[in-house]
Amino acid sequence: GQQVMQIPQYQHVQEGEDFTTYCNSSTTLSNIQWYKQRPGGHPVFLIQLVKSGEVKKQKRLTFQFGEAKKNSSLHITATQTTDVGTYFCAVLTYLDTGRRALTFGSGTRLQVQP
Amino acid sequence: DAGVTQSPTHLIKTRGQQVTLRCSPKSGHDTVSWYQQALGQGPQFIFQYYEEEERQRGNFPDRFSGHQFPNYSSELNVNALLLGDSALYLCASSRPGGIYEQYFGPGTRLTVT
What we know:
The complex is a heterodimer. Chain A is mostly beta strands.
């Protein structure tokens, strides 16, 4: 299956600072999804990107899909303590069974200092 | 509308034993996928069930097996438990068609001693 690398593994910021996590692939991706997992919680879907160069915004979160569809980023403006958690990118793969499956990256853990 | 539910929430087993984990998907969802999440790692795909059949399997040994029932609920069975099987086991469901957004349950924390 397709593999994605996420960087950084961990980032500690002061509340109010910006934060960016990156997801990179050596192959062209058909689409990418982003999930957030709060400490002790389960992954929650944030967004899906499909088009080359696509940019989507959700309040303080900005998601980008690279022009070559080999990378993606999630940027949080002016972090808040509620942003604490691990952010995962996930690649949707279409299987030869006609079904779909997700391959997750290893995640970026965000810690926000109040 | 209940989301994805899983039972039990925590489980402690001894090496060599067998375990069964249960999952009920979100209402209206017909596909159930199981993931293993080790500490500090992303979820790893185990397998997917649709129409009561295993449709795809990730890189997991045959000790991991599953089942889906007519009401779309699912079980994950793990035989001959190893210490390395200790992890959070997540069930996720998705609806027919759409963008394949995965709705995750709260997970079952399995500890093998």
